[in-house]
Specification:
globular; 34% helix
């Protein structure tokens, strides 16, 4: 069996509820959460760029924080102005590309994540909009997330489309690992169907952080992780790179499931785990090296 390069991590890394669950200390000048994170994972998605246009100084600081010498990569999530509001101009494009260039020049850029909402279904207008967006950022690898089932098996091979697991509500896509451009990009949102439905009714309404995050509050079982392992390994011979991102971030669930899936994808090779996560989730003792 072919052994593709594996890049496993989470969507975001700066969560207060990961303190004492994953991180042993608060963020400070002397302790970097990102640096600590990069000791255990080789990939992360940047979520903050979806909500705001970051100063280049922030991206430059990330480059200084990660463990030097490690093969660690960032995927940057495109701002919602492009995918949800569909209102942007040259200034917004320049802001996005400035940070992408900083990460790319440091050889740390996996690509640009372009995540569309469930309402973005397959139709001529949306096909044309997607093509125009792909063209704008053509100098970067792009990972496109389309949640509506109308796109399933009807996506072009010129970019990489995400394989996603999410609650099966309405016409959502099924989790079917797929490879394009010799890359598989898998994202896992959890299966909290009740909270997901509730969040849809509150769309565009003011929400607290807890309300926004509850839809992702889900811990995959070992059985579900083994199911993902089996399905992903079915495409090993077609892929040179496989990216895995856990987005079920509340309470450190994403960290747990990222470690577990990494363990299985690496043929049950035991992992170096921080004591914090083993204490919070004793089930990880079985995959721990130390």
């Amino acid at each position: 069996m072919n052994k593709p390069e594996l890049y496993v991590g989470t969507a975001g890394w700066s969560y207060e509820d990961w303190l004492k669950v994953f991180y042993p200390f608060n963020q400070s000048r002397d302790f970097s959460w990102l640096k600590f994170y990069s000791r255990f994972f080789n990939h992360v998605e940047v979520n903050s760029t979806y909500y705001t246009y970051l100063s280049p100084k922030i991206a430059e600081n990330w480059m200084r924080q990660i463990e030097q010498g490690n093969d660690f990569y960032f995927t940057v999530k495109l701002h919602l102005d492009f995918t949800h509001r569909k209102i942007y101009g040259d200034e917004q494009i320049k802001s996005v590309k400035t940070n992408l260039e900083i990460i790319k020049e440091n050889n740390r850029l996996a690509g640009l994540l372009i995540q569309f909402p469930y309402s973005f279904n397959l139709c001529e207008a949306n096909i044309n909009y997607l093509k125009s967006l792909i063209k704008i950022f053509e100098e970067y690898d792009q990972f496109i997330e389309l949640r509506h089932k109308s796109w399933q098996n009807k996506t072009p091979k010129t970019v990489t489309f995400c394989s996603i697991d999410q609650p099966q509500i309405g016409d959502t896509v099924d989790f079917i690992p797929k490879v394009s451009r010799e890359i598989c990009y898998a994202r896992f949102h959890g299966r909290n169907a009740e909270a997901w439905k509730k969040s849809l009714t509150g769309f565009k309404k003011p929400q607290t952080y807890q309300e926004q995050s509850e839809r992702y509050n889900y811990l995959y079982s070992i059985g579900e992780i083994m199911e993902f392992d089996f399905k992903i390994k079915e495409i090993y011979d077609k892929a040179k790179k496989i990216f895995v991102t856990m987005n079920n971030h509340p309470n450190g669930n994403a960290i747990v499931n990222a470690f577990e899936l990494m363990y299985f994808l690496r043929n049950k090779t035991k992992l170096n785990l921080p004591n914090t996560i083993k204490k919070a989730f004793p089930r990880l003792e079985n995959i721990s090296l130390n």
